[in-house]
Amino acid sequence: MKILIIEDEKELAKSIVEYLSEESYLCEVAATFTEAMNKIDVFNYDCILLDITLPDGNGLKILEKLKEENKQDGVIIISAKNSLDDKIKGLQIGADDYLTKPFHLSELTVRIYSIIRRKQFNNSNIVKQEALEIDLLAKTVAVNSEPVALTKKEFNLLLYFIGNKNRVLSKSNLAEHLSGDFADMLDNHDFVYAHVKNLKKKLNDAGCEPYLKTVYGTGYKWEG
Predict the structure, then answer these.
(1) What is the CB-side half-sphere exposure of residue 52 using CA atoms within 13 A?
(2) How many whole angstroms separate alpha carbon 58 and alpha carbon 86?
(3) How far, in Å, CA of 141 to CA of 127, rounded?
(4) What backbone phi and psi angles, to 5 degrees, belong to 129?
(5) Burial, 170: exposed, middle or buried (Cβ in 10 Å; 0-12, 13-18, 19+)?
(6) In angstroms, how far is CA 36 from the centroid of its own chain?
(7) Three-class SS string for the chain?
(8) Does this model's pTM top 0.70?
(9) pLDDT digits over 178-205, tens only?
(10) Within 13 Å of residue 107, how many CA atoms lie on the same side as its CB?
């Protein structure tokens, strides 16, 4: 899962990155309004943490831009502003949640998880497709009730496919999801093929139906 942290307080941004990375989230940081606008123009995120007080602009303008473009990224406003008017305005524009600083990172993580679960997995902690069962909280996968051992990247990839069920995802989409904006610096995206191949093999060997399809010349698709 990919998170964009729009936060100009370096120490706070660093703490959030360290904490969320331990929870297997891929984190990117934008410290200014301009940097954030550049990122949301190019990339999509599972959740955006948005500080509305930035050195070169108002974070609410970023939120307005997301809504104008009908982007589906989840948004949590993180702000030292604690007035009711600020909260109402942020939520009216389209934020999914509002968290006042200072906050516990464990609470932030639960709120991120809650948004992703609601947007991508029908608000359930368990994702099922025939014999396949994924426990989102425990981060485990089973086929016919037998556990399937996946790496962090394979598990992340599986959730990304299921969260985008029946959509063709290109190699560049998948590379960006797995590596963030670092993917732009890579000479090729062959590592995506290796991860998809391994994920397919592990699921197929466990007896899972072949939901993950190769769309030749285009990318991959999870059918269901």
Answers:
(1) 25
(2) 12
(3) 9
(4) -145, 100
(5) middle
(6) 16
(7) CEEEEECCCHHHHHHHHHHHHHCCCEEEEECCHHHHHHHHHHCCCCEEEECCEECCEEHHHHHHHHHHCCCCCEEEEEECCCCHHHHHHHHHHCCCEEEECCCCHHHHHHHHHHHHHHHHCCCCCEEEECCEEEECCCCEEEECCEEECCCHHHHHHHHHHHHCCCCEECHHHHHHHHHHHHHHHCCCCHHHHHHHHHHHHHHHHCCCCCCEEEECCCEEEECC
(8) yes
(9) 887 666 666 667 788 899 999 999 999 9
(10) 10
Nearest one of 1, 27, 2, 26 to 12, comparing CA atoms = 27
Give the contacts of 203 (CB within 8 A, at least 6 positions apart): 132, 143, 148, 158, 211, 212
Do 125 and 117 touch, CB atoms closer than 8 A?
yes
Q: Which two tokens stand for residue 71?
A: 């982007």
